[in-house]
Amino acid sequence: MAIMRYRGWDPFKEMAKLFDWKPAKMFGWEGQELRFPALDVEDMGETLVVKAEIPGVNPEEMEVELHGDQLLIRGEKREEKEEHDREKKYYYKERSFGSFSRSVSLGVELDPEDVQAEYRDGVLIVTLRKAASKKARKIDIKR
Prior knowledge:
Elements: H1 11-19, H2 23-26, E1 38-43, E2 47-53, E3 62-67, E4 70-77, E5 98-105, E6 110-120, E7 123-130
Antiparallel strand pairs: 1-2, 2-7, 3-4, 4-5, 6-7
């Protein structure tokens, strides 16, 4: 039988562990930031297409702004309330409601006059045309 040194129980270390507890560690999300809305940014050559998943939000409750190369999407997801809601008892209530805001740097100069936005099936699609001076062009090499 091996004799091991008793390290003792340190209540302060145990308390420090409690304060360090994070749900992200427990569920394996560490290193991933939870952001809403989730975005995809696709370079289509002449344009950039930004797709944002924003289900359950009325398009009139959203705003899209372009400031230089920064795209800002913000809005509010409202909870439908009825008079008899006070009587409801939930087993789970995981849906969230409230204001949201997401800003993303697109890294290219854009034409602020040529931006379109549409909302379809819970996805906001913003199409932004690149500025003419910043488009890539092929250069022929002479011999």
